[in-house]
Amino acid sequence: MSVQRKKIHPHKYSLWIAMGSITMMFIGFTSAYVVKRAQANWEVFELPHIFWLSTAVILISSGTIQLAVRQFKQRNMQRYKQLITLTAVLGVIFAACQCVGFAQLSQRGLPLSGPVSASFIYVIVGMHMLHVLGGVVALLIMFVRAFRTRVRVYSPVPIEVASLYWHFVDALWIYLLVFLTIAR
Fold first, then answer.
1. pLDDT at residue 3, rounded to an integer
2. Please, where are the H alpha helices in the chain?
């Protein structure tokens, strides 16, 4: 009797490699943050409250994309279109909340060129926001594909890959927010 191994789709494998790389980058950022925090000129400040609102937004969007995957697999394309659209909109709202948070930091006298502690927030949160926007681009591609009049291939792999990445940036944000709140 031969045991067949279930192979991972190449796109999913590539995504796992990319997520590992992204994780290592953010581990580097947070490690540098811890090292620099030990210096005498470190300035402590509260994070903008809108970062917590953006957390709720991205958590909701993780739910909507998971529902979108389920609807796609059930071939309920109308509901899938609604959910993938809502997820993309929530991703844009998340990024907008982050921009508002940056503006609030700047209004408090903490610009990007200000204290090192503020610069770290801009870099860490800004890099995360760029990765979320990359996810929004992927969602917009899924959106365009969903509204095609003719479906060439009915494969759940693209939406599964987009969903996995979306959950990843969600979990990454929660880690970063908790880290930045505790390690002030």
1. 60
2. 10-37, 50-73, 77-107, 116-146, 157-182
Q: How confident is the model at residue 1 (pLDDT cuts 50, 70, 90)?
A: low
| Separation between Cα atoms, residue 129 and residue 89, nearest integer Å | 14
- How far apart CA 178 and CA 47 sit, in angstroms, is 11
Distance CA 123, CA 32 (A): 12
Count of residues in the chain:
184
Q: Alpha-carbon distance 165 to 61, whole Å? A: 12
* Short-list 75, 64, 81, 63, CA closest to 156: 75
CA 1 distance to own-chain centroid: 44
Cβ proximity of 38 and 184 under 8 Å: no
